[in-house]
Amino acid sequence: MKVRADTSVCVASGMCVLNVPDVFDQREEDGLVELLDEQPPQERHEAVRMAVLGCPSGALSVEE
Known about the structure:
Layout: E1 2-5, H1 15-19, E2 24-26, E3 33-35, H2 45-54, E4 60-63
Antiparallel strand pairs: 1-4, 2-3
């Protein structure tokens, strides 16, 4: 799995950080999503998928 984040559509809601804080963070200056781990371990895949589905702006995606 490879995670992608599009900061041009991110609305800085922070839902991804709440769901998977070891994969996502928010930039200090504007709160936009920041990827901490583009290729998370297998045990994080389901949580990452849930974060992608819960992103209100559709800024997150995964490539299987």
